[in-house]
Amino acid sequence: MTSSSKRIVVAINPHASFGRGREVGPAVVTTLRALGHDVTSLIEPDFLQLLEAAREAVRTKPDALVVVGGDGMVNLGVLALEGSRVPLGLVPSGTGNDMARGLGIPVGDTEAAIAHLVAALDRPPRVIDAGSIGFDLLDVPADSVEVGRGGRGRSRFACILSAGFDALVNERANRMTRPRGRSRYTIALLIELATLRPIDYTLTLDGVVHHEKALLVAVANNLSFGGGMKVAPDAQLDDGLFDVVLVRPLGRLAFLRIYPRVFAGTHVTDPRVVVHRAAAVRVEADGVVAYADGERIAPLPVDISMDAGGLRVVA
């Protein structure tokens, strides 16, 4: 090891055993070792075992935890690093890769992403926000969540928590194996569009209660989800506030007209799209499951709080 070498833990997506993504993890490990860094590679058969291994590794206080994969792996890193000052590095190789987009990390070019990581390792980490989630344990498998104070489930996220039509699309897209990439979300959206209906929500934003009928609710720390859909184009990763985006009831044709604008972020100029800003958010509705960073969290209600400056990133 040289004087500039670092001790780095690399956690590799356990499901990246096929397609282009399977070569990315080994390439990251090989490159970092060739540069003289002391690298520990974590490969486990499933998400929960990899999360526990990452937490154990973080307790040894490495110079960075690098995750290789998509936004689900970012979520693993955010969970593993709770309460730690160890920074999170990312080499995107997943389907959505929205956290990488928000951080300015190259997407779709493994060599460029690794070069970005290597260069950023020599700089002080960037400090950004994270979100904390509390929820009831009813209807949530006990072995898939952590239990916090008062016996409630708890989790964290870095990108966006979704609870509505967007979550239904996410749930369907995650069950699909083809096609790869952003088109999978588009197909899932079109399928769910056939049963489009508004949902009755109760939202509590920094203590103020709002009753809303809406198709979509997104609590955003990052600007995009679903592979580049800029649902919250003005969201900032380090401003201490969530952008809470609501899409009020629309017919199917109107929804189809506004949908393409999400990729440019121009949908927010439509009067039926409402954006609030808050640091504490409670979302309540019947029959809706919340997703965060593309991972299934729990049925509503959920309580979301801002952990300002709660995450350091290598970017």
From TrEMBL:
<dbReference type="GO" id="GO:0008654">
    <property type="term" value="P:phospholipid biosynthetic process"/>
</dbReference>
<comment type="similarity">
    <text>Belongs to the diacylglycerol/lipid kinase family.</text>
</comment>
<dbReference type="GO" id="GO:0004143">
    <property type="term" value="F:ATP-dependent diacylglycerol kinase activity"/>
</dbReference>
<dbReference type="Pfam" id="PF19279">
    <property type="entry name" value="YegS_C"/>
</dbReference>
<keyword id="KW-0594">Phospholipid biosynthesis</keyword>
<keyword id="KW-0067">ATP-binding</keyword>
<keyword id="KW-0808">Transferase</keyword>
<dbReference type="InterPro" id="IPR017438">
    <property type="entry name" value="ATP-NAD_kinase_N"/>
</dbReference>
<dbReference type="InterPro" id="IPR050187">
    <property type="entry name" value="Lipid_Phosphate_FormReg"/>
</dbReference>
<dbReference type="InterPro" id="IPR001206">
    <property type="entry name" value="Diacylglycerol_kinase_cat_dom"/>
</dbReference>
<keyword id="KW-1208">Phospholipid metabolism</keyword>
<dbReference type="InterPro" id="IPR016064">
    <property type="entry name" value="NAD/diacylglycerol_kinase_sf"/>
</dbReference>
<protein>
    <submittedName>
        <fullName>Diacylglycerol kinase (ATP)</fullName>
        <ecNumber>2.7.1.107</ecNumber>
    </submittedName>
</protein>
<dbReference type="GO" id="GO:0005886">
    <property type="term" value="C:plasma membrane"/>
</dbReference>
<keyword id="KW-0547">Nucleotide-binding</keyword>
<keyword id="KW-0418">Kinase</keyword>
<keyword id="KW-0443">Lipid metabolism</keyword>
<feature type="domain" description="DAGKc">
    <location>
        <begin position="3"/>
        <end position="137"/>
    </location>
</feature>
<dbReference type="InterPro" id="IPR045540">
    <property type="entry name" value="YegS/DAGK_C"/>
</dbReference>
<dbReference type="GO" id="GO:0005524">
    <property type="term" value="F:ATP binding"/>
</dbReference>
<keyword id="KW-0444">Lipid biosynthesis</keyword>
<dbReference type="Pfam" id="PF00781">
    <property type="entry name" value="DAGK_cat"/>
</dbReference>
